[in-house]
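User: We ran a pulldown and think these components assemble together. Before we commit to crystallization trials, I'd like a predicted model of the whole complex to look at. Sequences follow.
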Amino acid sequence: MAEIKLTDLTKSYGPTEVLHHVEGEIKDGEFIVIVGPSGCGKSTLLRMVAGLETVTSGEIAIAGRRVNELEPSARDIAMVFQNYALYPHMSVRENMAYGLKIRKLSKAEINKRVEEAADILEIRQYLDRKPRQLSGGQRQRVAMGRAIVRDPQVFLFDEPLSNLDAKLRVQMRLEIRKLQQRLGVTSIYVTHDQVEAMTLGDRLMVLNGGYVEQFGTPIELYDRPASVFVAGFIGSPAMNFIPAMVEGDTMVLSTQAKLPAISSYRGAALLGIRPEHLTPDENGPIAIDVDMVEQLGANTLLHGKLNGSDHEMVASVPGHVSTETGAQHRFSVASELLHLFDPATEKRLEA
Amino acid sequence: MVERRPLTSLLTHFVLVLGVIAIALPIWITFVAATHDQYRMNQVPLPLWPGTHLWDNLSQTLFGAGLSGTEGAPVWLMLFNSLAMALMISLGKIAISLLSAFAIVYFRFPFRMTCFWMIFITLMLPVEVRILPTFEVVANLGMLNSYWGLSIPLIASATATFMFRQVFLTVPDEMLESARIDGAGPMRFFWDILLPLSRTNIAALFVILFIFGWNQYLWPLLITTDTSMTTIVMSIKQMLEAAEQSPQWNIIMTTALLAMIPPIFVVISMQKLFVQGLTETDK
Amino acid sequence: MLKRVHFPSSPLPYLLVAPQLAITLVFFIWPASQAMYQSFLIEDAFGLGSEFVWFENFEVLWEDQHYLDAFWRTAIFSLLVAALSMGFALVLAGFAQRVVRGAMAYRTLLIWPYAVAPVLAGALWVFMFNPTLGIFPYFLDFVGIDWNHYLNGNQAMALVVMAAAWKQVAYNFLFYLAAMQSIPNSVIEAAAIDGAGPGRRFFNIILPLISPTTFFLLVINMVYAFFETFGIIHAVTQGGPGTSTTILVYKVFNDGFVGLDLGGSAAQSVVLMVLVIAMTVVQFRYVERKVEY
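Assistant: Here's a predicted model for the assembly, 927 residues in total across the polymer chains.
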């Protein structure tokens, strides 16, 4: 059980800095998801915590102990890899026992731990098989089992579900969450999948281009995204962004669409509206000329252009909506659900 | 195959059988010659069908006087010498190549590239082109007429190092990362993970190198003057020379047969590994 | 070239490369540089001293008609060996890949010559073509050919070419078969739907698709014929009759060990080294396109 502290953490490859001054505190037993597009530095950050990448500057502390210079095996961590990294020539049992054997635990202790972990993960009947005789989901469990038997202070997950098919991914996602809650081990989980991130994490760290864009609970990220990037990354379909001009008491989106101002900010801004927050309203201020309709069953996505402008917009409407292309639909939106961003810095403009 | 016409199928097998006959003919003739007595082997035309003297010829060749008129070593000793040389070359080469490939792939150290290029350059220097000075080196080191002299100069070659390097590069990085998290040091990782993972490649390379070692000719010819160090492959040439005086083709061909059997046996019994090794070493 | 993660620095890697480096230095790099150095020396008639003469040994080679003849002979020899063994292997592989069941059996029956030492291959062929006893001269006599490779230079050349090509067929066959089997079946089927018969498919589809293999094998076979056929020549003809089968590798050996012309032999070695390096570079160009380092 341990808390993790990242202080002013920087990583460079030669002259190229790939992680910039990352700060963060992870509480004991917390499940943290690092999320971001590929190449944002999320895996690098995780691997630095694991000790597989060196730290250029700054400090990583696990349970109050500086670990920058420690070998991975000395950090009391366990890691689940994207491709599982099971040793193909060893049986499931040997795979799980290997780290314990190196730590010179007694045979009885090793067997006890391996079998306990196997029971938790329901892989006991596969203990004597080789990895290649297992399905993707079973391999995934073995990889987790290998992490569990070490009884570490920290679990590290590097996109562990991305090699599974969609259905299995949802199932394993739930299992990982349940397992973590049961064991109460501090965990860091890296993914590029925002749904996975939202469902798994106690808190999410959104990385973009080596910068931490926001670090908060899923609901904070959804309700109050700190930047255009976070706003666009979290939520599906993605948030609509419309350039707006705030003059006096009104925000002008286009010649037709005008909304009341929501903050004291005046001048050019970027207005964000989530598609699911657009409510059909015959007298609403926002008119969309629909050119494409996606029927998803539970809801309907209406794609089109904001009337009187070239801005693409999407509205998500509950239930079935029958419409034809070219038709105009009007919407209103509650002002507390609007997000305003600075067009230059792309940061959130607070009320 | 797309079509399945009896006629094309027949033609295909016909051509292949002809090919097999053409390829196998020299070996067949060798075998036939080893089954007749000396008298029959001096009559024209020579037989094309096996006779009944195989065991006589074998026992005379292996344990008897062998070819009369030559002061050679007994054939069993030559076979032993060949085996020793082939094993030393193949196992030695595999051992040093595994180690150096491991160092080059898994460590970063000063002069890494220098080492790499020094090994690489040997790819371009077959023994034939540096034969005289290499002979001098071996002579100065007092390694003439020894198993060391027979094998060590042929051990260092880049091909095996390159193959293992290729193999190691295809081992996923996560294997090492996972092993490090498990607390395995470099040599432990090498023994527990890397070696078991490359065992088919090692076996495949062994087949190739065993044949390479067994079939060495020019090098043993130069550095062995003592008849007790003669290898079986070398002895054939001496026998051919002797044959000009007293043709004992039955014995010569029995010896040739004995010289061919071990490498052919290795190739046929490990055919799958051999094919894999061949195509991977050269690519 | 190097793993993303590596072990922390320690003296260990030096220990690991030490055996190979030591052997390489002592038995490869040192002798090769000796060969270079000697190629610039001429020994006096009594072998007592030697004189540094720069490129004189090479100039002598360049003007030596025997050497130039050997050069051309080697070129012709290796081309003949490559053409014969590759052609034979190509035909066999072309038919073998059409066989559904039994392809492995044919492969097994075709690969053993690879395991036969060159000098043994030479011995087998010399036995089959022995002018007085051999089975082939006996049959050739019926069609009016008087075979004696001890006297007839062209026949001697033909014999070493056949022996050398025979040994290499197995190797070429394996590579051709592997290349043909790696062509997706759908391509062959598409051609069949387009109306191409087996022969047409072979020439229009298979042959162009395996051309990289052909090129690769050509280089390999040339290198083989240049260097690895020493044993065959030594067993079959000893370079004769006259010098009609003296190829470069044989001449290096002969001039150095038999003729004891160290400088001249060393110069020939250096020329050979340059040739090997050229061929290796060509080969690696090809390899690099296929394999990522």
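The CA atoms of residues 97 and 110 of chain A lie 6 Å apart. That may be worth checking against your pulldown data before setting up trials.

User: Thanks, that helps.
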